[in-house]
Each structure stands twice: as C-alpha cells, then as structure tokens.
Amino acid sequence: MLAIYATIALAAVSSVSGAPVYKRIQQTIADSTAQWEQACLAAGGGQQCNPVSIRAFSTLLAAPGPCEQQDAADAMIDLAHQLNNDSEMIRLTKLFRQQPRNAPDSLSVLYCQNAPRNSELSGLFQCQFQGVNDNIFGSFANQVAVGTPGTIPFGQSSVLSPPGSCPANPGGKIPDGTQLNTIVSDPGNGGSGGNNDNNNDNNATPPPAATTPAEDPAPADDTPATTPASDPAPVVQAPSSSGSFQDSNASAAQTLNIGFKSITTGSSCNEGDIACAGDQFAQCVSGAFVTTACAGGTQCMALPLVNKVGTSVTCTTLDDAARRFSGISGGFDGSH
Question: What's the domain count of the chain?
Fold first, then answer.
C-alpha cells in the first residue's frame, strides 16, 4: 500500500504569490451516524442500518449538494418509522441533520432551500463549525456573500443570529471537527418561523465555549472545476527540479491512481487515510476502508492541483481528469 495516500502533509510550500490561505475544517464523518446505527440495530433494523448510515455520513463531505444531508436524514426517519417509530433513531437523526459539514475552504456551508419530506425535520438545518467565515458561503471557486439565496435557512427571512447556530445549539457555532451529538442531547425545535422566533424557542443554556483545535492551514486549489473539490487535504509532493510543478503533480497523482488499483472495500489502513477503491471514494474507519459511491457520471481518482504543489483525492468526471492529465503519458492511471 502506498504510504503517499496515507500522509496528510501540510508542510510549508511556496504557493502562488498573494493567493489566499484557507484553514481546512473536517471531521471523522462516520462518527456522525455511529450512535444512530447502533440504535437502528437495537430496534431490529438489521442489514438495513449500515447502508443508510454510510449514505448519510458521506453527505458531510464538501462535494454533496446543499440538500443531500437533509435527503439522507429523511431516509433515516423513513427507516425509523418502519421500526415502530423508534424514538431514539428519530432523536439521533434530528441531531445528524444539524451536524456541521466539512469546510475545506473554511467558508460557511450553504443551507438547503427545500422542505424535508418528514415533519420531524421541519425547521432543522446544520450548525457551522467555529472556524468558518461567517460572511462568505460556498467554496473558493464559487463564493456567495451572506444574505444572498442559500445563506439563510429555509423558512426564515433573515440572517442567523448568532451566525452558525442551529436549533440544537442556539448559542452559536460548535468547535471544529466536533460531533453535535457529543455536545447536546436535545435536538431542539425547528419550527418554520423567523430567525428571532426560532432562537427564542430554543432558549436553552448553550454548551460551554470550547477552544477551536489548532489546525495547519492548507491553501485552496483555484481550479473552477465542475466537480467540487474533495475534503481530504492535499498530498504535498516536492516539485521536480526540472519542468513545471504541474507536471510533477500530474505524475504524483498518476502514481497514486496506480496504487489505488490494489485497494478494495475492507482493505487495511490507518485512521484518517483516504483513497479510491475502484470508482468509489474510500475513507479509513476503524482500520479498514469504507467506500462511498460517487455521484452519477463521476468516479474517484487522485487529481493534480493546478496552482500549487500537491494532489487531492476526489470524485470527478473523466473529462476533467483528461484535462488535468493532458500531456502525461499513460493518462490518469498509466494505462491511457
């Protein structure tokens, strides 16, 4: 197994002069539904529990759209209804719906603008991590100013106050990388009223403030790709002494993709490792790779960064891959 994909090397690297530097905010996404899955098994859900759990926690990555976390929560509620309306599953689902999503560019995550299918989720929306920018939403390649569509939760008419709060945690944002279900047990009441009414309805004492964990900054890729960048930090390589760093990046990404061919679901790994297993995105959970299917028309692969030294692992289209590996013999995995 290639050690290169297991290392998140955030060494000091000379980037494009004047390019903004962002803090990469992520979490162990599998922790967000672990308690729910145990409650599902206890309620008799059997083999139905794990696929729903995996689908749900994968929506906390950066690539899924604003409503995919809510859609996954609807599926979790659907299964709870099938299991005699299990109250613990419903409680944990409501907390999952409000779990912050990864923010690799340290920007606030856009809110879903559709109503959920299940009434238990009405008025619920995700909190934000403490390290995100309150005034800018989206990604480095597609920034949206606060106050514009998508930056105000569905059913509300004004910007959140305090920023980044949610019904389960009305006091504000939560520490970077933290699971909401470890901070609060009461998911709160969503409601469909305005922002001020919503916060007053949830006037519980907020959890004590915590210090945001220190995290090394990672500059963002400036490529305006149609496929959103994956959350994992770039794997930084030393540039070749001859030729451009873009060529070195492409060669390093090609090497990763060749190594990924030996990885399958369940392959051994170290916690935090990321890779591709076939066409699927793979993340190390409890010593083994767990895979998540990429969106339709995309597949997992390592890609070269274009404005700095390094690579990233993401779901992308073959057209985008062909563009990034243009001029590299063998293409993205040495066989093209």
Answer: 2
120 with 239, same domain?
no
48/145 same-domain check: yes
pLDDT (tens, 9 = 90+) of the chain, 336 residues, equals 444 343 333 333 333 334 455 678 989 898 999 999 999 999 999 989 998 998 899 899 888 899 999 999 999 999 999 999 999 999 999 999 999 999 988 999 999 999 999 999 999 999 999 999 999 999 877 899 999 999 999 999 999 999 999 999 999 999 999 999 999 999 998 643 334 333 333 333 333 333 333 333 333 333 333 233 344 443 433 334 434 677 888 888 888 988 899 999 888 888 768 889 998 888 888 788 888 888 777 888 888 877 677 787 888 888 888 888 887 888 888 777
CA–CA distance, 106 with 25 (Å, rounded to integer): 6
Q: Is residue 78 part of a domain?
A: yes
Q: Give the global pTM.
A: 0.58
Q: How far apart are CA 258 and CA 302, in angstroms?
A: 10
Q: Could you tell me if residue 248 is inside a domain? A: yes
- Domain end (from 166, 201, 236): 201
Domain end marker among 201, 233, 252 = 201
Q: Is residue 29 a contact partner of residue 58, using CB atoms and an 8 Å limit?
A: yes
Among candidate residues 269, 16, 32, 250, the one with its CA nearest the CA of residue 277: 269
Omega before 162 cis (within 30°)? yes
Which domain range does residue 298 map to?
223-324
**17 contacts 307 by C-beta, under 8 angstroms:** no
How far is Cα 304 from Cα 314, in angstroms, rounded to an integer?
Answer: 11
Element (H, E) at 18: none
Segments in the chain forming alpha helices (H): 3-6, 31-42, 49-58, 68-82, 87-97, 195-201, 245-260, 318-324
Q: Are residues 137 and 36 in the same domain?
A: yes
Residues 144 and 253 in one domain: no
Answer yes or no: are the C-beta atoms of 250 and 332 closer than 8 Å: no
Spatial contact of 107 and 140, defined as CB atoms under 8 Å apart: yes
